[in-house]
Amino acid sequence: MPMQILINLLIGFIWMFFQESFSFLTFFSGYLFGIVVLFILRRFLPHKFYLESLVAIIHLFLVFIRELFVSSVQVSRHIIKPKIDVTPGVFKLETDLEGELEVTLLALLLNLTPGSVVMEVSDDNKRFYLHGINLPSAKESAYKSQKKLETAIKRVTRND
Predict the structure, then answer these.
(1) What per-residue string of b and e applies to 89-107 under the rule 16 or more CB within 10 Å gives b?
(2) What is the CA radius of gyration of the chain?
(3) Tell me, what's the pLDDT at 95?
(4) Arithmetic mean of pLDDT, 75-90
(5) CA nearest 22: which of 13, 9, 31, 32?
(6) Which of 1, 48, 105, 127 has the greatest count of CB atoms below 10 A from its CB?
(7) Taking a C-beta distance cutoff of 8 angstroms, is the pair 138, 71 a contact?
(8) How far apart are CA 119 and CA 125, in angstroms?
(9) How far apart are CA 157 and CA 160, in angstroms?
(10) DSSP letter string, 108-146
(11) 107-150, pLDDT tens digit by residue?
């Protein structure tokens, strides 16, 4: 992926020199031309097209923002109530992610969503132990978040 970005930048600069106009607009049009060239040649490249990875990263970010908002609203509902009625507890979450990067990313994203905290990851990186603020709802929302985040993480990290 970094090599594709460098090639695209090089195409943009070469385009700018061929046009004999050293402006941002000329470079940008050459950069867009480079995107088209790389898109046409994408099947000859060893990695997937870098704009696909960029779109996957933006999708992961948007999924995380949505999950963060939803779980923040849930935690706010618990706080606003006059009588706090929560049943905290620990539960196990199974994952099929592979590699330390994927597992770490999922653990961090689950930690940043309020209502659940990853306490421990098993030695084989297949199980998370989470603490939930309200066990029945936290467990259910953690499972839903996990599936959405796992799918988005796989799109970012795997070269399919």
Answers:
(1) eebebebebeeeebbebbb
(2) 22
(3) 92
(4) 83
(5) 13
(6) 105
(7) no
(8) 13
(9) 9
(10) HHHHHSTTEEEEEE-TTS-EEEEEESSHHHHHHHHHHHH
(11) 998 887 777 889 999 999 999 999 988 787 778 888 888 898 99
Name the pairing type of β-strands 127-132 and 89-94: antiparallel
Query: Across the strands, what pairs with 120?
Result: 129
Round to whole Å and give the CA distance between 134 and 116: 9
Burial 2-34 (b: 16+ CB within 10 A, else e): eebeebbeebbeebbeeeeeeeeebbebbbeeb
Tokens representing residue 150 in the block? 């796992």
Q: Express each pLDDT in 17-50 by its tens digit.
A: 999 888 999 999 999 999 999 999 988 888 888 8
Residue 76, C-beta contacts closer than 8 angstroms, at least 6 positions apart: none
For residue 58, pLDDT beyond 90: yes
